[in-house]
Amino acid sequence: MTTRSAPALIVPSTQVPATRDATPCGPTRIEPRLRTRSLRIHPLVAFFALAFAGTWLAAAPVVLGPSGFRLLPALPDALSLLIFFGATFAGPTMAAFGAAWLEDGGSGVRRFAAAYARWRVAPGWWLAAPLIFPALWLLGYSAVLEGAPLLALARSPQLLLTVFLPALALLSVVGLGEEAGWRGFALPRLQLVLGPVRATLVLGLLHGLWHLPMLASGILGPFSAGGFVIFIVVAVLGTFIYTWVSNHVRHSILIATLVHAGSNASTNLMTQLVELPHSGDPRVEWLLQDNRLNVLIFGAAALILLAATRGRLGYQRAGAAPTDGPPPAVVPAG
Predict the structure, then answer these.
(1) 8 A C-beta contact, residue 49 and residue 91
(2) Using CA atoms, how far apart are residues 260 and 200, in angstroms rounded to an integer?
(3) Residue 29: strand, helix, or coil
């Protein structure tokens, strides 16, 4: 599968009086006479092209193997896992470093890399980040299933230690590989061009489509066109949560990684807590099929965030002081 190569932004340094960005997210700020939409969008085009190409090519031996499209011979399980995890770094992470270099050479790379060390955020975020998605799933499914998931967790709280935490630790590797690109590089730059809401919609859509080879091959579960559409919708809605968190922690890659790992690890936990098929109302059964209930859960979360922040999702314009408060306080950014 091929991708269009993105045009690189190459302008002689003698003609570009660039200044370093005062915001923590790191995109280069260019003098007003040259700060056009097209100039700012070049690194983003490069990033997404490289992110898709890098991951899809790196994951090809697994996607085309017996567990996927069955076009290539089987690989050892350990090697398949290594390729699967490495594909996230070959995609979003490497794409972010490459696009940062296109944006502003070595200075751009150094500013982007600084996001890895951005750990000084309000302590509450370190606790809340991995629990946001599990909490939403528990509340949403419990509301529909008459409290069954919460009751199951109350009866077996050890599942948090035996199922959720090990998955959280392992899947943090995947989260780190992805979030360096999605929230560390792409989100702050998309917001400069599109604002928080449209940036979230674009990023959520592209992030969802990025999963296509893994989904279509069946590696991540049975594939259907309807299920894929629902997956994309949920990816877009869930991205509103990521944007809100990221804007409040100055685009910390580490916090975004915990949110991502918590989301992935929730699947392991909810599988233990929710019995399918669930006997009861056929309308409930319909909601549980193809993860339709997730659309309601994350749709409600997105609407609450948009209403509470007046559509700002914690976003601060360039030059404004970053919002770094604890998660319980949703402070509109203007």
Answers:
(1) no
(2) 15
(3) strand
Nearest to 257 by CA among 242, 236, 239, 240: 242
pLDDT tens digit at each of 334 positions of the chain:
443 333 333 333 333 333 334 344 445 443 333 344 554 558 999 999 999 999 999 999 988 988 788 889 988 888 988 998 899 999 999 999 999 998 889 999 999 998 898 888 999 999 999 999 999 999 999 999 989 999 999 999 999 999 999 999 999 999 999 999 999 999 999 999 999 999 999 999 999 999 998 888 777 777 888 889 999 999 999 999 999 999 999 999 999 999 999 999 999 899 899 876 565 678 888 888 888 999 999 999 999 999 999 999 999 875 444 333 333 333 333 3
Which of 201-232 are b and which e, b meaning 16 or more Cβ less than 10 Å from the residue's Cβ?
bbbbebbbebbbbbbebebeeeeeeebbebbb
- CA distances 279 to 147, 275, 286, 290, Å, are 14, 9, 12, 17
Structure tokens at 69: 């499209």
The model's pTM is 0.81
Say which DSSP state 27 is in. P
Q: Which residue spans within 41-104 are E strands per DSSP?
A: none
DSSP 35: -
